[in-house]
Amino acid sequence: MKGEVFVLALSSLKERKVRNWLTILGIIIGIAAIVTLVFVGNGLENAIREQFSKLGISNIRVAPGNLRGPPTGTLGFNNSIVDLVEDVKAVEYVNPALLNFATVEYNNKEEVLMTIGYDTKLSDKGFLDVDLKLEEGRFFRSGEKNGIIIGWKIAHDNFKKEILARSNININNIQFKVIGIFEKTGTDVDDRIYMPLEDARELFNKRDIVNVFVVKVKDGIDVEEAAEDIKRELQKHYEEEQFTVFTPKQLLSQLKSILGIVTFLLSGIAAISLVVGGIGIMNSMFTSVLERTRDIGVMKSIGATNKQILVMFLVESGLIGLIGGILGVVLGISIAEIVEIIAANFGFSLLAITLNFKIIVFMLLFSFGIGMISGVVPAYQAAKLKPVDALRYE
What we know:
Layout: H1 2-15, H2 17-55, E1 59-64, E2 77-78, H3 80-86, E3 91-106, E4 109-118, H4 125-129, E5 134-137, E6 147-150, H5 152-156, E7 168-171, E8 174-182, E9 192-196, H6 197-204, E10 209-210, E11 212-217, H7 223-235, E12 243-246, H8 248-291, H9 293-301, H10 306-345, H11 357-374, H12 376-383, H13 387-392
Parallel strand pairs: 4-9, 6-8
Antiparallel strand pairs: 1-11, 1-12, 2-10, 3-4, 3-7, 3-11, 5-8, 6-9, 7-8
């Protein structure tokens, strides 16, 4: 009898194609929206993790307190803070940076770009520690002047003519020579210009401050413990609200938390369409019960039980949900893949959509469950019909 129930449910779906497909559409939209958000959210989380691995897992960042956005302008610390941090035993080296937006001119076109003053005494060590490699040219030499290293996007996309190593460009009307071009990273490094720290101080007239600095922890020392040591040292000279010490683990945790909340809220909004789809299934099943009242009477008169009638309608409503779920999952994955392609075309190549089969199976079971739950009341109504009343129904 179980096989017959399934066959009858399928037969009913085929007989009412237009109405059932309109009902299924609500489920498709809801499932597709949720699947897209979940997979894109997971892709962004993987991208964030990948970007942090490029920034160096053993690097601590010290920035002004209550920072909002890039620490540019006069927001920063006196140069003496570098010596304080270098005295901490766990610290291998300190890489101070001076960040500022500048007008960059090349081939008669101007762009406003982020520039970063970099301590050339570190030579290529600081860059290699965060896995930054050059596509062309070389790293800074100690004490170098008027040389810059530019991001991949600046070299290849920002200007009509590509910038090559040994090209000259003007920054705030001062000529600099491009000594190197970074490989494409898919991070904000692609949009930045690195110059010697002393050149940046002179160019922006900021000789006494650094905006932010990166601290490399010695091998074998716990990063979290090193961060606490740095905090204790800085608290001797600064108020606690004047500085913030970030570890990669803390930053990653905060970003994942924010991303999780956003994904949850958007998925909740998308779930509204599932509620609408569930109501549509319920409405469709009520209509189906009315249309098949005489058929129900015939089945009961030849021995069908209330349970069998109930199961038949529940299976039918569950199948509507499952079909919508299958098509919704396929559509959602397709949209997520399209988002990945679009992101890559806009230079965000770290976004990688990976299929999670546990999520796919859960969404299919979820959509089947929504269908069955939506069909409970109509199925119960059908099961309770008396054969005599059903046969007399017009």
